[in-house]
Write a structure and sequence with these properties.
The chain is mainly alpha-helical. It is about 75% helix and about 0% strand.
Length: about 400
Amino acid sequence: MTETIKKHARVDVADVLRGFAVLAIILLHSIEHFNFYSFPDTAGQSDWLNFTDKAIWNGLFFAFGGKAYAIFAMLFGFSFFIQHDNQRMRGKDFRLRFCWRLLILFIIGNIDACFFTGEILVMYALIGFVLVLTCKLPTKWIIALSAACLLQPVCIYQIIRALISPEYTIATINSGPFWAETFWVQTEGSFLETVRVNLWEGQLASLAWAWEHGRIFQTAGLFMAGMLIGRAGWFNREHLGAWGRALAIATLCYFPLSGLDNLAPDYIDNPNIKTPLHILLSSLANLSFMLMLTSGIIFGYYRTQRFSRLLTALIPYGKMSMTNYVTQGIIGSAIYYHWGFYTRLGITGSLLVGIAIFIVQYIFCRFWTGRHSHGPLEYIWKRATWIG
């Protein structure tokens, strides 16, 4: 008589959220030209095209900027919980295996970085060790640690120091030369030069940007928050009430946080207070908006039949989130960088390119998931995780 293998069932709404997050990331990256901020002269453009360019840029960044990545980070922690708990139910400890899994992710991230300067998988691989260190802690401890990270402790320290000592100056990373090198290679470099620069200067610039904009602590906090969501089973239908409370609290927090973030620069002259305060407020405002989006998607998936059918269509795309994330960087850099087609498009045209990339990827995802249980990169990552 064979023993039944205990494991968590796949949570479809998590795949919906992954699909939504990666779609939003693709659209943002496309209008940014995949971190290559070089656009054609708009002086001769028609007024309506100038209007759509501005509306698309402001609208997409308002809706998704800082929020799509936050959803992605939260789901990374949730996935860790599922894998860790599946092994726990079999009497095994997943922590050491997950460290190996993070090393594989680091390699995949550097392959992605050969093409795209702003990839995040390397950062995830480095910060992911926080999950290994905290997964055995009591829930109340993880809540406290997650909250501490999300509250941007470095920014709070800088604000307090600047208030106490007027001569205090924020320590900054001189990442300007790194960004200059990446911009040069995007504008003039060959493919091999792009790879060389992206793997060193590009990664240093990206990590420095993440540190200076509060993404390091925010990502660690969201990893732990995702793990807590897994522990509590919040993605299951019976916990809709918890998301209702999260939606109410996030809505109440978002507007004052966003308002203070917009108003503070008019009343604060000291840049050593203004800069960390902006990072703190904008980070918390984005977190609140992300919870509003997440709650809305979960309610739409479980409660609204028509909206549920639309969201369910994102499941194949979400199941292949890593494959889609990595390939969009390869495709995007080939379209916009000098080593590729060096396409010069305005923001409106770039959005259409992003939509086209999504459609092509989505068609492939529907085809692939109809025949395989994992996407190509997801399968490689899984097999490499359990090698030996």
